[in-house]
Please model this.
Amino acid sequence: MTLQILLAISAILFAFGLAAALSRSNAIMIVIGIELMLGAANLNFIAFWRFSENPSDLAGILFVIFSIGVAAAEAAVGLAIIILVHRRIRSVEVDDASNLKG
Amino acid sequence: MSFLPSLESPQTIDVSLGPQHPSTHGVFRMNVTLDGETVTRLQPVFGYLHRNHEKIAEGNSWLAAMPYTDRLDYICPLTNNWAYALAVEKLAGIEVAERAEFIRVITAELTRLQNHVAFLGFVLGDMGAWGTALMYAFREREKILDLFESLTGARMMCNYMRFGGCRCDLPPGWLDTTRKLVDGFPKFLDEMEALLTGNEILLARLQGVAPMTADRAINGGMSGPVLRAAGVDYDIRKVDNYGIYNRFKFRVPRGTVGDCYDRFMIRVLEARESVGILKQAIAVIPEGPVVNPKAKQRGFRPPAGEAYGRIEGPKGELGFYLIADGSDKPYRFRIRPPSLINLTLLEELCVGTKIADVMVILGSIDIVLGEVDR
Amino acid sequence: MIFPGSGILKGLAVTARNFAGSYVEKDRLTTEQYPEERPKLPEAARSFPFLVYDGDNPETGMRCVSCKICEKECPPQCIYIIQDRDEAGKAIKRPKVFDIDISVCMSCQICVEVCPFESIRMDQDYELSSFDRFGSLILDKPKLLKSNSYYHSIHPTEAAETDGRIEADRLKKEAAAAAKAAKAAAPSVVSASSSSSQQEGKP
Amino acid sequence: MVTDFLKTCCADPMKLIGEWFVILPALVLLLAAAAAVVMRNLIHAALLLTLSFIALGIVFIALGAEFVGFVQLLVYVGAVAMVIVFSILLTKPDQLTKSRNLLSGFAPAAGVAVAFTALAALLGFIFSSPLAKKPMPAPASAPVAAIGEALMGDYVIALIVLGILLTAALVGAAVIAMEDKP
Amino acid sequence: MISSLESAPIDVLHWFLGLLGSFGVPAWILAIISALIIIGTIIGVFLSLFALTSVMERKILARVQNRYGPNRAGPFGLFQPIADGIKMITKEDLVPRTADWIVHFLAPVVMMVPALLVLAIIPYGRDMVPAELDAGILYFFAVGAGTEVAVFMAGWGSNNKYSVLGAMRAIAQMISYELPLVISAIVTAMISGSLSPSAIVSAQGGFAFGFVPQWFALTPWGFTAGLIFYICALAESNRSPFDLPEGESELVAGHLTEYSGFKYATFFMAEYVGMFAICGMFVTLFLGGWQAPLPFLDIIPSWCWFLGKVCFVAFTMIWVRATLPRLRIDHLLAFAWKFLLPMSFAAFLSAACWHYAGRGPLAWILSLAIVGIPYLLLGNAFTNRFSVSRRTYLFSE
Model:
């Protein structure tokens, strides 16, 4: 059970998130992708804290707590924007939101 | 996953608070269009309990129509009987025996008491109080129904009034039990009021919900407690002075705002007034025949003509419009159902309120489907 | 209102008093455990009609003379009577068939009021549920016939009045028969004088 | 093969269990995340996302950071998952299962290609760097009191900023999403 | 072997493990077995409590309404839960054809899991805590958040208008009541200095003036925080004035409309076990967990005190359910955000002042003021719209 396995797991998770964010056309699926990417980053922090020499240095853990807070705020605002977009153009497809395309 | 997108905008949902619903006081359906929580359109559907009462009455003799009136507003059978008897007496010009008039007032006020008390229980049940107030109300109502059973033979299907009086006299000891019950009633009303009127949740659920202005109530044809809650001082007992109501001193409460809370409180205050009337009536009831001997019951042929007799039923102005063509069967037998007419404003009251309020508003109008569908 | 939550507390106090009261005061608990405790019906209670017969033989002691007034007057028309005929085919004053369909009857008691011969009365037996709707809910004559003593047991005062009225009618009829017999027995001698006196005697 | 597996297992069972306690939820996490990404029905995707949040929380707890695991469970499963599910309900209730909801043309393939090249690069660095080969040290645990001291100690400014950020996000989201009633 | 009634359960456990140990069972298997035994007893106790309350609730409700309640099945109706259980199991378990059957099937499972997990951190007796976590309270709320997901799955899985509306309402209610719940629990953690329940219980030990127990509920801020916690507990377990999701009079059975048979029984069980768990947490935080109310009452074992207090709090929940009508959705949310949340902040502030003012009589007055004034102001502002007295009724002769 070395650090490599944990880092590999979080890398795969990050890849799934990125794939979702880039390939899906529904805005909410993109938000789900972002959440997965954030989760992967948190996993990295905790893995490094767990394998560090002196576990009493809690930088990793505190950083994850702050990142969870920010991620929650971001999810809330992001979805609020999606609902507003839906109310304007009656659809959540990313392609339809192309009024600025000229 | 198929949401039923209703006509106006995809956001609204069509919900049918169907005939099979725990708190619609019988088989009554409402097609409600909801935008989230608020009601945008409400279409009442009734007729599930239509038994063709008026056509049956035209096929039967005058006396045979009397037991059917019990089935109209099955919570207040004796006031229905009285309204029909009053209309026939007006049609044929029969005077009523003195003692029968007193018995009619006593039974009518007892019916009003048990109807208003049952109303309190139902409204609380609709709001989710798990039937506690309902059980207290029904415990008292049972005592009144036992009185009716010992007097008329049946708890709810009394068939007791006859043209010109009543069918049989009071059994011995009936008046004493009534007096004991009436004396104990204010204590019970205080207990119910302590449980209900100060309760913040109840105030929040009832006050300011579906207010009705006085002229809107009059134009809508409202009658009874719903009308008086809107602030209109109109009680047929005072207006027509039918029976011997002018011999009793009682007050008629009326509200100011006309919302669900006023309709609720008016019935509580009216119950207290009825207790007052009962006390006065029991004190001065005379002896004597119970039915006018000259009135014929079987093969009764009133002279041709028409009459409209109405009384202040617990739910509103209950009227009977009868046309006689000289035969022993009524030519036309029309009933003015207060529940149905009070129901006409339901949509207007409910639009804009929350779905949870629809049940409370329906409960506050206090309808009985037997009377709505006839 | 000074204490915003006080209304709710008052309500809770009422339910607490009822909760405690139900263990203490017996009159609060009005539930009857039905199969074990039977309800005590008041005297005027009524369920479905039944036919009264005097004496002990139901067929002969029957009061009903099948005049069919109750059949006409019954609002839901649930009584069905066929008059009995003797061998020679002449109608006799007794119903051969007297059925009441108690799934239709609404126990309105109008048949009791209109019956001139006090022969139909309201029973107090309410446990009439059965499995088949057609056969056992139509009570035919044998099921309907019950003795006068049974009638006295369920409606004592009303039974007493009815017997009183029947007694009075019988006496009046006997007096009339005796008077007629007396008149027939002495027609020649006193006919002129007695017949005149008879007239006023019988308005 | 089975016997020596049993022998190692009996030798130091707690260590083995400790190890599996991390790998198992991690597997669940990856499977749930993969399924969430691929799922056509949005609601199923959101529910699988919730499952992956739970699995991530359990991994944190297994790695000794209990406090963070519980916070992750509370914040993500309790709040973020619900917000996502509610926004799905509010925006697209009818055509949930019909559309493939993939970007038009070859964009999806390109997106996935980019993602996997990034993954390959990352894995390359991970497995080549010497730093990552260290074995797992003794089971460490971060007592809540220590976290509390640190939060209130030298990270207090960050905590207050986080508070302000969350309130701003709360009010902002409410204002944006509120129906502009006249 | 059993030294005193007080530690009887623990002695039995150690005796049994010693017996097994003597048969040469390796240590780690012993650890697993002891964990399983503890889990088994807890689940056994709480499921039997569930069975008992399903009949006691109907009997208490009946007695409040002056009737007898179930007394046909067994003496005083005590076999009623068995009858209900058999009925629930034998009833046909129908799933709507167009329903999302996976989500429909998983909802009761996901509902049951948090209800049982939450029992792990409640201290049942003097040193009888199944899982000694130093972030016990946070664990309680973290796992409790799972019920919202389960409610949504139930609502969405049944593919029926009523249940989706009911689910949306339930989640809105649960989320808005979770905030005051967490804050009022944190108040006690702040005063006792740790998030672990057993530390909080021991902080409530001792007796002031010899006989008054120093429970948190008896301090001004503790009483308000306790009341807020109690109200939010009612809302979290969807009971009585807040049982809007299953508002019979409106949306038939809310998110449980399309459930029948064993799945419905699981929801039912989850709701009751959840109710007992949150009652246990209320007792731990505010009523001094397993502390005896009077010093000389220590002869009665501590876990009996805990069980007694939990049953008393459960009784009050049933009593409240019998009395109060249901709140409308907007009142419910307004009550949570505009009254309970500010009041929990006030309780927080007053607890801090109480602590730093030295916990003396002055501290009591100060904390009472900090809690009392917002209560009166907010309360009157909240009920000003409905005051009874202003409503006058005219009478005419």
Notes: Chain A has one domain: 3-99. The two ends of chain A are 54 Å apart (CA to CA). The longest helix of chain A spans residues 59-89.
